[in-house]
Amino acid sequence: MAPTLQSVATVLGLLLPYWTVHALPTSRANSACCDAFRNQFQAVQLDLVTPGAYFSAQESDLSPSCRVNPTTAEEVSQILSTTTQLGCKFAVRSGGHMPWGGSANIDEPGVTIDLGFLNTTTLSEDKQVAHVGPGSRWGPVYDTLSPDGLVVVGGRSEHVGVGGYLLGGGISFFSPRFGFASDNVAGYQIALANGTIVEANSQENPDLFWAMRLGSTNFGIVTRYDLKTTAATKMWGGIRSYNRSHALDAAQALLDFDKKSGELGLDSAGLDIGSSDEFFMNFDRVEPNINDTDVYDSLLSIPFTSDTTRSDVTLKNILQEIDALFPIGLHASFRTLAFTSDAQFMIDWWQEGLKIFAPYEGNSDLSWTFAFTPVPASLLQAAEQANDPQGVSANNGSVMLTNLNAFWQDNLDEDDIQSKLAELIGWGQTEAQQRGLLNKWVYLNYASPDQKPYESIPEANLQRLRDVRQNVDPDSVLQNLWPGGFKI
Ligand SMILES: Cc1cc2nc3c(=O)[nH]c(=O)nc-3n(C[C@H](O)[C@H](O)[C@H](O)COP(=O)(O)OP(=O)(O)OC[C@H]3O[C@@H](n4cnc5c(N)ncnc54)[C@H](O)[C@@H]3O)c2cc1C
Ligand SMILES: *[C@@H]1O[C@H](CO)[C@@H](O)[C@H](O)[C@H]1NC(C)=O
Ligand SMILES: *[C@@H]1O[C@H](CO)[C@@H](O)[C@H](O)[C@H]1NC(C)=O
Ligand SMILES: *[C@@H]1O[C@H](CO)[C@@H](O)[C@H](O)[C@H]1NC(C)=O
Ligand SMILES: *[C@@H]1O[C@H](CO)[C@@H](O)[C@H](O)[C@H]1NC(C)=O
Ligand SMILES: *[C@@H]1O[C@H](CO)[C@@H](O)[C@H](O)[C@H]1NC(C)=O
């Protein structure tokens, strides 16, 4: 993910409060589940909305019959048993950053299971593994590990949640070297549909262990992640902004970067271009400086209008810079498309966006952006070696991943914006196909609810995921009662 909201912050000319509190309505439909929770639990808190619980307005606008905040795996298991026995629809929230309405929240009579208090990080005795609660955000996870000089393959934002991120892949600054974040999970503790708590790792329940890497909301509620640790290093990086007149040069330079960035897997860069007068590039090297590499040369030669790149920074410095560009509480949408890198296609697609969104030109209440991230062959190879269920392949070299994102204010027409975004993705898909560039990978963490990440994976993997689901949830309870997330 890369910055897009410098535009909103400056163009909108408004300062949004970082945390947005959403009061619960006073009267709500009766819910047998909420009554049961009240009778069942002493410790579990009900109806507590953590400020800033959700990234998008579409999520925070929903209002469940109650929210329940378990603090242990056993409580999650009891809640899940109650919910399935009484047949209540439910949602599960960890970091609340999946933007679409209903992904991690639900309207009454549904109930929301909020894992925000399951947010501890502890190291194993040999420090090889971090035990991380699903309700943790990546910032506190990194902060906890950093005194030991350690890090895990995790989010490029301090605020994104561990829980959802790891169930859809997870692209990290460490991914070019180690693969998706999910490929670096050593084990899971999971509450299954019937309330049973199981461990899934290479020894216990190995099929479920494999499946969880693309688990979304299909197999159970994860109550603990065991993440492999690796040595932390200082970084080089930052963000530059550019005059639009250099867009084609930048897209071409990104291809050059992609060709040069090698097997060491230290380098990440991204191009953000859309409705803003300017476009942006982010540079993120997992080494303290760039003295020994030429991979960034072409990118750095493009004339810029502002620049924060610097040596010897911490991961935290980099993340805080990115997060400052993503205010919480706006209407938000993510969509995705993958293709074989091609500078002219990127520029043509952007131009098509300017055409489709012409009715909003100059409207400071909306910003939309293509965040283009090269996914290097080294990342795809690492995922392939780990037999990642996404089934991505390094056979054809690197892939350009698109996150088409948009942010807008309450007063604008949700349906109109969503349909324009869908039209823009549709144009890209058709055009990429015609130019022989389309890659059918639909990255789950960036997908919108009308996209189908599971249909994009190899059939054999899909069948194996279905078999695992049949084993852990033979009665399709989660399919029926848990509408959020992506279903196989
Ligand atoms: C500002 C921003 C930056 C981002 N940066 C990146 C990035 O760098 N790389 C990347 O790959 N993605 C990134 N994403 C996408 C992000 O990975 C997904 O939105 C992810 O789902 C967020 O996880 P969460 O726990 O915060 O979300 P939530 O909204 O809480 O959960 C997402 C989904 O997972 C389900 N879920 C959550 N926890 C559990 C659990 N314990 N057990 C079972 N199901 C669960 C929820 O029910 C929901 O359907 C970013 C998103 C935003 C908004
Ligand atoms: C866990 O969440 C609680 C409640 O939001 C918060 O007070 C606490 O600081 C969090 N702990 C960590 C390690 O983030
Ligand atoms: C961008 O570059 C063009 C062409 O050089 C120039 O006309 C324009 O004023 C520049 N825009 C900004 C915002 O600097
Ligand atoms: C590498 O770059 C850093 C930061 O620019 C600089 O301080 C350092 O002297 C350089 N080292 C070498 C060996 O050139
Ligand atoms: C590689 O490219 C060829 C030709 O475009 C295509 O037929 C094939 O499916 C691609 N393979 C993978 C693994 O993406
Ligand atoms: C719960 O489901 C799992 C997976 O299907 C099964 O192995 C276990 O026996 C079930 N437990 C109970 C108590 O039914």
Automatic annotation (TrEMBL):
SUPFAM superfamilies: FAD-binding/transporter-associated domain-like. Residues 60-232 form the FAD-binding PCMH-type domain. It comes from the Eukaryota. Transmembrane segments: none annotated. Residues 1-23 form the signal peptide. Keywords: FAD, Flavoprotein, Oxidoreductase, Signal. Belongs to the oxygen-dependent FAD-linked oxidoreductase family. PANTHER family: BINDING OXIDOREDUCTASE, PUTATIVE (AFU_ORTHOLOGUE AFUA_1G17690)-RELATED, FAD-BINDING PCMH-TYPE DOMAIN-CONTAINING PROTEIN-RELATED. This is FAD-binding PCMH-type domain-containing protein. It comes from Marasmiellus scandens. The lineage of its organism: Eukaryota, Fungi, Dikarya, Basidiomycota, Agaricomycotina.
